[in-house]
Design goal:
Largest sheet: 8 strands, mixed
Helix content: 25-40%
Order of helices and strands: HEEEEEEEEHEHEEEEHE
Shape: elongated
Oligomer: single chain
Number of strands: 14
């Protein structure tokens, strides 16, 4: 009996060891599944910024798949400009032009028979430019006009006067218009009435602020005649000449020295 019991015990041992091995394997598989599941959730929670370097894709591609390369085209002289864009949580990357506003700030001369335009001199290039800047996220273009006018000249336009004081000149979307990047600009004419408007310092005279070196008043009649060509930044001379044509009563406006004669834009027939 003793011998038989010992032999039986030795035969059952391998079965117990196999069970232990199977249990260990099962636990290992469950552990791996758990680890991969946790890593998957963690990766989805991490916001990703995809760096998109220059490639041979055309400028007509408005969007690119997550992780693909994108080349920005635009500016002058025309050439490829590598850049980057943000991708949303749905892994869709939208590479689009920046949105900006340009302001033609104008007022009647003391004689009340002519108009003058207030422009800024840029600190970076020293060129003359319209007042303006980029539209902030969550901001309307109309609100951006009031904000930029205050930041660059100190002029405060009351909200109740904004609608009557602000007129649309046009939309400027030519990719060549600005040498920094592709920028679409909405241009507005904003009438400045010193007797009805004040500035942050309590005067009726615009004063340079933000990134403007100085604010100067230029007779509208001299724009495109005395002040032309390299005097102006980007396509701002085109914007001012379009405004000049909209204000003209006889339609005779000399157009010389523009960045491009065929700048793509859509303009209003008048600002009245």
């Amino acid at each position: 009996m003793t011998t038989n019991t010992s032999t039986s015990s030795r035969r059952r041992a391998p079965a117990g060891a196999a069970a232990n091995i199977n249990a260990v394997r099962t636990l290992a598989i469950l552990a791996m599944i758990t680890i991969f599941a946790v890593l998957g959730i963690f990766v989805k929670l991490i916001p990703s910024k995809v760096s998109l370097i220059s490639s041979s894709k055309s400028a007509s591609s408005a969007a690119c798949l997550h992780g693909e390369e994108q080349t920005w085209h635009g500016g002058h002289p025309a050439k490829d400009r590598p850049g980057s864009c943000w991708c949303g949580g749905d892994e869709y990357c939208m590479c689009t032009p920046s949105l900006a506003i340009d302001i033609v700030l104008y007022s009647k001369t003391p004689s009340m028979d002519e108009y003058s335009v207030w422009v800024v001199r840029r600190r970076d290039t020293g060129q003359l430019a319209t007042i303006g800047g980029f539209v902030d996220v969550g901001e309307t273009t109309e609100s951006a006009v009031l904000r930029e006018a205050e930041e660059e000249t100190g002029i405060i336009i009351p909200l109740e006067q904004a609608n009557s004081a602000m007129k649309l000149i046009g939309v400027y979307s030519d990719p060549r218009r600005d040498n920094r990047r592709a920028i679409v600009s909405i241009a507005y004419a904003l009438e400045f009435i010193p007797s009805a408007t004040t500035t942050k310092v309590g005067t009726s005279i615009p004063k340079a602020g933000d990134d403007a070196k100085e604010v100067i008043s230029v007779p509208l009649a001299e724009i495109g005649v005395k002040y032309k060509g390299e005097d102006w930044y980007a396509d701002h001379l085109t914007i001012l000449l379009d405004f000049k044509e909209q204000m003209a009563t006889d339609g005779s406006v000399v157009r010389e020295g523009e960045l491009y004669e065929d700048v793509a834009r859509s303009t209003c027939s008048s600002i009245s």
